[in-house]
Amino acid sequence: MILMEVFVSTASHSLKYFYTAVTAGIDFPEFTTVGLVDDEPFTYYDSNMKKEIPKTEWIKKNVREDYWDLNTQASLSAQQTFNDSIGILMKRFNQTQGVHTVQYMYGCEWDDETGNTTGLDQYGYDGEDFITLDMETWRYIAPGHRGLLSALKWNNYPGELEYEKRYLNQECFDWLKKYLSYGKSTLERRVKPEVSLLQKDTSSPVTCHVTGFYPRAVMVTWKRDGQDLDVDVELGETVPNGDGTFQTTSHLHVKPEDWKRNRYTCTVHHKSLEDDIILPVTEENIKSNKDPESENSMGIIIGCVLGALLLIIAVIAVVLWKKRTSGYGRSNSEYFSHPLLNAINVIIIQYRYPEFRL
């Protein structure tokens, strides 16, 4: 369950990789990978173009061409592994048709203020949690019965688990700090949010729409007569715009006579702001969908999202799976001293040894 009065992301910095495989026959790549630093995509691959490409200038300027060659080979290997996994799971669950997905997310989060670190490693199947690596016991666990067989199988490979532990406890953070140094001017920028109150009609919830901000972490809260409100509110997902910034929403579910009688406010807290943005819920401040200004602003938002559709779909797919972030794939390090060592290493292991497939 999502709490209403918390930061969308408590980590100051993060490095995450998301892999998604889908069954063939739909108008979407069968396999995609996205790498993100501080939730900003910096690498991308899909099975249509069969090439790993940079998504930011800072990574393009700071790595050599063999970086992309190596990652392309890793993604090609992962593509085969994950496509095979879909077939294995469909057979295991007696599924003969339909659209099915395997997703994987791994990486790390680091709070540079407290020093707290967290590793991430989990799989999803058909939009639900499948297996997760427990960071305390270093064993794979299955949230539901469908992932039990895969968890039991993978827990029989202590060498692989030890490698995961080393990567998630140390190497991931080393590379995160390296990437942060590469993209310091971009990743440490501060972009102020624009905040609007929107309502479809007089009986609809009032939406506090926050857009155009960077970094991703933001706090959106509601107050009634100066007191924090933790009921009748619904926090939406934070999703990327097409321009490197983010947007989110929070909905106030009270009747018009209530917010007209009491003093409700939407408060936005973000690193870019010296003072919080506070918008009182009044008829004057609420924009209707019928307002030209509101329609124009929403058109810009939609246009930004559509401008990077494939990339954003790959990221949003994870958000929809885990209600915050969740995901996909793996890689290699035994053979190369390289930023994506874990991803490449595990992919090659899985590619060579079928028992590592789901």
What does this structure look like?
Keywords: Glycoprotein, Immunoglobulin domain, Membrane, Transmembrane, Transmembrane helix. It holds the Pfam family C1-set. Belongs to the MHC class I family. It comes from Conger conger. This is Ig-like domain-containing protein. This protein has about 350 residues and is an alpha+beta fold. It folds into 2 domains: about 15-185 and about 310-355, Murine Class I Major Histocompatibility Complex, H2-DB, Chain A, domain 1, CATH 3.30.500.10; about 195-310, Immunoglobulins (Immunoglobulin-like, Sandwich). Helix content is about 35%, strand content about 30%. It has 9 helices and 18 strands. The strands form 3 sheets. The chain has an 8-stranded antiparallel sheet, with helices on both faces. Strands 9, 10, 13, 14, 15 and 18 form a 6-stranded mixed sheet that branches. It has a 4-stranded antiparallel sheet with strand order 12-11-16-17, with no helix packed on it. Strand 3 and strand 4 (about 55) form a beta hairpin. The longest helix is centred in the first third of the chain and has 28 residues, at about 65-90. The model is unreliable at about 1-10, about 290-310 and about 320-355 (pLDDT under 50).
What's the CATH architecture of the largest domain?
2-Layer Sandwich
Query: Which descriptor suits the 3D outline?
Result: globular
Low-confidence stretches: 1-9, 292-309, 322-356
Percentage of residues in strands: 25-35%
Number of DSSP strand runs:
18
Biggest sheet: strands, sense, closure? 8 strands, antiparallel
Average pLDDT works out at 82
Individual helix count: 9
Spatial extent as radius of gyration: 22 Å
CATH class of the largest domain: Alpha Beta
Helix-strand sequence: EEEEHHEEEEHHHEEEEEEEHEEEHHH
Helix content: 25-40%
Major beta sheet, strand line-up: 4-3-2-1-5-6-7-8
CATH superfamily placement of the largest domain: MHC class I-like antigen recognition-like
Question: How many independent structural domains?
Answer: 2
